[in-house]
Every structure is written in C-alpha cells, then in structure tokens.
Here is the input.
Amino acid sequence: MGPEPVFAQRLSIEQVEEGNVLAPKFDEHGLIPVVTTDFASGELLMHGYMNAEALKRTIQTGEAHYWSRSRKALWHKGATSGLVQHVREMRIDDDQDCVWLRVEVAGSGASCHVGYRSCFYRAVPTGDANAGADVALEWKELGKVFDPKDVYGDAPNPTIL
Here is the structure.
C-alpha cells in the first residue's frame, strides 16, 4: 500500500462544499454512509458504512472496505467470497457526509451475502393497495448468483436480528 491518505480538517462551509480537499464528516459513531453501484449499469448493489480506516484503505487499495456495524470490525468486501469490489470511481457528496462507490465486482458480480447480485433484491409496493395489511414484498431478482452455504459455510449470519 502507498502512503496513508490524510483527511483535511473541516474549517468552513466553503472549504467543504467548494474546496479541493477531502474533509469527510463522520457521524457520532465515527461512520460515514456508503452507497455502492455497478460501474457499468448503475445498478444499486449495496449500502454500507465506512469508518476512517475503511475509507483510507479503500483509497489506498482501490478495493472496497467497509465497517461492519454488527461485527464491529473492518471488512474487506470479497475477502472471504472472492467477490471483491474494484473501485472504478469514488465520489463524495456536497457536504462530504456520504460516499458513492462505482465498482466492478470480481467473480459472479454478486455483492449480496445472501447470494443475490444486489442487496436490493425485493421491492416494497406503495399506495392504497397496502393500507391496513401486511406489506408483501415483490421479488425483483428471481435467482441467486451463488449459494451462500458454498461460500460461507453454515455459520449463522451475524447481521440478522
């Protein structure tokens, strides 16, 4: 890895919104939200969080690193599964409190630990049809890209419940 990136101190609104230095705003837990999309198609693959270390490692390596809130650990996406997210472009929003990664995913192109290509594989219907009833999700991806048991074994998922 190259030299460690240094984040600028946040000094003014003008510096943050119109300046040329990275001065990310992490929340009270030291995290910044990240949306990750497919570089070629623009499809939303996942949403996650980075702490300062994950952001630095992503910048240094060109591969996505996140902070797992459930495991309370740094997470190199694809280190276990081989589905590494290669960052083709990283953007920061206007007030530097949200990151957007545009990635190419190694292997089958999946980014969801459940086995689907995208973590957003179901849609939530809206409107009057759902008034007073349990909301029935609509499946948008009908088949898994990989079997999670083949990749991760039978270990329980620490991110659920």
The domain at 29-113 is CATH 3.10.20.810 (Ubiquitin-like (UB roll)). Helices lie at 13-18, 52-61, 148-152.
